[in-house]
Structure formats: C-alpha cells, structure tokens
Amino acid sequence: MTTFCYTQTIFINEIHYDNTGADVDEGFEISGPAGTDLNGYTVELYNGNGGGSYDTVNLSGIIPNQQNNLGTLWFSVTILQNGSPDGLALIDSDGTTVIQFLSYEGVITATDGPANGMSSTDIGVSEGSSTAIGESLQLIGEGSQYSDFTWTGPIAATNGLVNTGQTLPVTRNQIIGFAMYPNPVSDGKFVISSNSGENKQIEIYSMIGKRVYTKTVKANEIIDIVNLNSGIYLLRVQENNKIATRKLIVN
C-alpha cells in the first residue's frame, strides 16, 4: 500500500527540464539535513499524458553540510520530459512512501508506480524553448523544510549548491544558549537547555519526515528516547516563538 508523507526533511529543491535548442544539464536537486544518506531513495518520473511513470531514478550519496547543517545534491537526468504537464515523485527508501509528488505545467494524476492514484502539486513556474541555457526552477526563501520556500524561475542554475535567495535554515528567532547533550545519544537519554530555562516543546523526526516523538519538557529534564532505533534524526525544539533544529544521532 502506498502512503504519502506530508512532513518531510528531504525535498526537491531545483529542477531543470527545458531550454533553448538542445536541452543542457537537465536534472533535479534534493535538499535536506547534512549527513542524510540518499541510497535507497528514488525519484519516479511521470508523464502527464496518461499519468504513467516513464522512468525511475535511483538516488545515492550523502547530503553535504553547505549551510547550517543542511545541504543539497544534484542529479543529472537527461530524459526529463518537457511538460504540459510532467512531474517527479520523491519516494522513500521503503519503496512505497511518497514524500513529494510535484509537477510542472499542470497537474498529473498518476496511474501507476508508487504515486498511483495521487494528484501532483503544480509548482507554478515553468521552462520552455526560450529559457536560457544555464537557468533552472528553484526554491527561494528562508527555512529548513519544503513548506518554508516558494518556487521561482527560470533563474541562473545553482546545481548542487544552496539556491540563490535561499537560506538554510532560518537564523532569526533562534533559542539563545540552546544546547543538547550528549549527542550522539548512547544510552537512550539526553538533555536540552537554554539561557531562559523555560519549558520547551520537542519533536523528533525520522529522516523520511515521520514524527516519531513529541513532548513538552522542563529545563534540564532528561528526555527518554530508549524506544527509538539507532540512526539519524532531526530534533525540532520550540520555546515560545523561538525554534532550534539539530541533527540527533542515536547509537
């Protein structure tokens, strides 16, 4: 059974599929927390004429730390179709969970593959035969997850780099004096603190964007995550209107 992940920590960040003359440097970019291993994830390519999948791109590599523990990886794909519409579905390493289903130049309802029966989200910008070589469609804005950003373009491509006009993550309203220890966590317990000592709402997400833990904690309260499997997670902490995000390693 295919499922859809509404909250994700990795996302499609840049797309290039058409330009003047022969297409050059076609592909897409994945963004997310530094250290995320993309091996096992795939991107399913969908044709809007009939809604069928026309290819599967196997992802690989580890997202580098390019800005504040987040980064990007570019994947060259020479067969991206030119729209009216066409789309891409980002699929979790379990082979069934659809993290994102995006399209350009219209909406697609998938008729096969992991996104079968789902309707895509049109990104609202497009390329064409007049798009200059070296341009792409990109997310801009400030934040650390897909919903923080807005699609724009075509503008100068930034393959494998943080996009022009994009800040990862938001640097304003950070929790002053935020600390967490130990990290990595080896005995299933850790502590978070800040200068204010106020209560904090914490959420922990897996690397596919699934929330696996949530709790309101007091200052220096021991947080018990003994039931979490070993791996890399994303910790999100809110203190009043201030937010901190950190990579959490559980051994």
From TrEMBL:
Q: Which UniProt keywords apply?
A: Signal
Q: Which organism is it from?
A: Lutibacter profundi
Q: Where is the Secretion system C-terminal sorting domain?
A: 180-250
Q: What superkingdom heads the lineage?
A: Bacteria
**Name of the protein described by the UniProt record:** Secretion system C-terminal sorting domain-containing protein
Keyword field contains NADP: no
Entry's Pfam families? Por_Secre_tail
Q: Does the keyword Signal apply?
A: yes
